[in-house]
């Protein structure tokens, strides 16, 4: 291990790396409860998604350990899974398309393949540099708001209303009350630097739900999709369910090239900044950047992310990406890929605890979604609202269009279109990089199809 991971050179040892790996795992294991919950809304089998999430996290994190020797863990990304379910699959299902999640998995596969090709060159980093900072921060903040409203809707905190569009749900339901208590618990645990604060928030909310069920406050009613919170602990239930392998739909893609291109581009765009931003953030916290502020072994790290995404699509889960929660392990002393190995192995072991994770209800994951939304929304403070009007308005449109139209793709689309149009109108077209022109024409074409009623079919 010393020879491969260069522990002494990085000022660490096996014990420190193991502790750091466990810390990272505890900080991000909530995804095993949240991801099946979100993707089940897309019509996928939650047990199969659980298996796919754990297995892809295991392999993706090992890729990072051995390709780049970084203490960074990978798993199905928050925001990307929401886009998968709510921006792609649900609209398709409403349009009458059967099993739209197969089309979304196909888009994830194609995205991963494109990222492999881009990662072999410096083009991926160039793409990041060519997109205006305000748009990057606005997209991140918008995704935070989108994840938040998804979480609040799942607990009945926010409900639909014919008169006001949205309204406050019933404050007396156990789902509402416990979700709000769970969020406060996470905030308190974070304040006191408790490892795995998000996971503990989910588990404590779930336990309170079980107590509510046993005391008769929480009523089980499968007809209303209110299920028992007590997991089945039979021996057979601990055997992982086989994932849905290679469930791709290339036939639909061939008939709907424009719609599919927009889906892939949106996946690409969100994942692009999520991955690079996370890697730089984690490396910066761990003092792993070089003297010029660049990320050594960046190509290996980006390839790890790309291969993880391809593998995740094959197993049946949304885009696999680097997790910012890896900073928890770095803060605990993790400096090498050995930290990632420990985290990956723990994800593999968690496969055999699926009854516990799958019994966790949507309202118990609401606190996690809202807290992650809070973290992503903080990127607003990095935006410059006193700069060029195109930067300001473009970033703002990205923020508001995601939650208000319930679509991450719409936020990216209107943010970029607004930015390019304002640059042209204010006679600053020379500031528009080629990648922004490509995005503009692609999204303009998509708007045209929507205007003429050409939707999913």
UniProtKB/TrEMBL annotation:
Annotated GO molecular function terms are: purine nucleobase transmembrane transporter activity
What does the record say about its membrane topology?
Multi-pass membrane protein
Q: Kindly list the places in or outside the cell where this protein is found, as annotated in its UniProt entry.
A: Cell membrane
Q: Which key words tag this protein in UniProt?
A: Cell membrane, Membrane, Transmembrane, Transmembrane helix, Transport
Keyword match Heme = no
Q: Mind telling me which residue stretches traverse the membrane in this protein?
A: 12-34, 46-68, 80-97, 103-123, 135-159, 171-190, 197-218, 260-282, 330-349, 356-376, 396-422, 434-454
Q: Can you cite an annotated GO cellular component? A: plasma membrane
UniProt-listed InterPro entries: Azg-like, Azg-like_bact_archaea, NCS2
Pfam families listed in its UniProt record: Xan_ur_permease (PF00860)
Which family would the database say this protein is a member of?
Belongs to the nucleobase:cation symporter-2 (NCS2) (TC 2.A.40) family. Azg-like subfamily.
Q: Which PANTHER family does the annotation name?
A: XANTHINE/URACIL PERMEASE C887.17-RELATED, XANTHINE_URACIL PERMEASE C887.17-RELATED
The protein's name: NCS2 family permease
Q: Which species is this UniProt entry from?
A: Mogibacterium kristiansenii
Instruction: Tell me the organism's taxonomic lineage.
Output: Bacteria, Bacillati, Bacillota, Clostridia, Peptostreptococcales
